[in-house]
Amino acid sequence: MFDSPLSASAYEVLQVAPDAPDDDLRKAYRLRLRHTHPDTGGDAAVFVQVQRAWALVGTSAARAAYDRGHGFAEVRDAPGGAGAADDADAWGAAGWRPPHRPADTRPRARSFGQPGGWRRERYLTLMREWAGRGAELGDPYDPALVRSAPRELKRLLADALAEEASARIVADLGMGYTVWHDVAADPRDPSLKLDHIVLGPSGLYAVLSEDFGAPVRVRRGELIGDGVTGAPVGDLVAAARAVARAGRVRFSGAIVVLPDDDVDTAIDEIGKVRGLPVAVVRRSTLSTVFRRGITGARDIGGNELFDVRTRLQSVVQFV
């Protein structure tokens, strides 16, 4: 909660205006506590949300920090990969650049492409059309602006952040892994893509990083929930099969990564979908999944790992 553009804001949970005086904010908090307390018939989950909301805006310092970042203060802090310099130049023209960071000397996974790049670019384009109407747009990540934007825009930003969060986790797996971000499954349709392809000793995986902004369940091999549209698992498997044909490789499995609060089970191996083992996992368990693999997935090692990497590198196109 509160770490996604799709989340209810702390003010929405407390049912008070974002510019409410501190006294009104405190009164709203106490009222919401009484109404949501489990001992008086309230919802325990909402009661916890109210407490967390107050922790974020209950003091002047905390409120000021929250208003600056709305829980996604690192929205500009996108990780780069190999070839990121070219991407950074293009993004700079769109009004965003990856920040400069101190050199990190730890062994990292070999990375290609820009995680979340297509969705960030799409977000900036649509935000400029919606908020700027062709005029110069200020900060496209301003918390108040994001909160007021249509759900379509917030969803694009949330998904970009989800992809970037997964990319940071994969990068820390070490030099035994290779990852490609934002891979086109059909160059004619940028929306049909693989958020990540991850190759390592546990196998070759197609990965979807999502944030639907609401709890998600699995039914008959597909995701369902208030925020789910279409067939995310089916699209993921279809995109994996397209890339597999082009590269003459075989995927070991497919993984759907979701925010921890949106799924009940840390690792839900839902079986095979069109012959490909699929798991739905919490983001916090992603590194564990990549290190151990999923049930039914085939390990890759030795010369085969090198061969698969070479094949993919020769055919991968980025959106």
Explain the overall architecture.
By secondary structure, this protein is α/β, with parallel strands linked by helices. The protein has two domains: 10-69, Helix Hairpins; 86-315, no CATH class. It contains eleven helices and nine strands. It has helices at residues 10-14, 22-36, 44-57, 60-69, 84-93, 117-132, 143-148, 151-171, 232-247, 286-292, 302-315; strands at 110-112, 178-184, 193-200, 203-209, 217-219, 222-224, 253-258, 267-273, 276-282. The strands form two sheets. It has a seven-stranded mixed beta sheet with strand order 1-2-3-4-7-9-8, with helices on both faces. Strands 5-6 form a two-stranded antiparallel ribbon. β8 (267-273) and β9 (276-282) form a beta hairpin. α6 (117-132) runs antiparallel to α8 (151-171).
Order of strands across the widest beta sheet?
1-2-3-4-7-9-8
The total beta strand count reads 9
Biggest β-sheet description: 7 strands, mixed
**Could you tell me how far the N terminus lies from the C terminus, measured between alpha carbons in angstroms?**
30 Å
Radius of gyration: 21 Å
Name the poorly predicted regions.
73-99
Percent range of helical residues: 40-55%
What is the molecular shape?
globular
Number of helices: 11
Strand percentage lies at: 15-25%
Q: What are the secondary-structure elements, in order, as H or E?
A: HHHHHEHHHEEEEEHEEEHH
Class derived from helix and strand content: alpha/beta
State the domain count.
Answer: 2
Rounded mean pLDDT is: 86
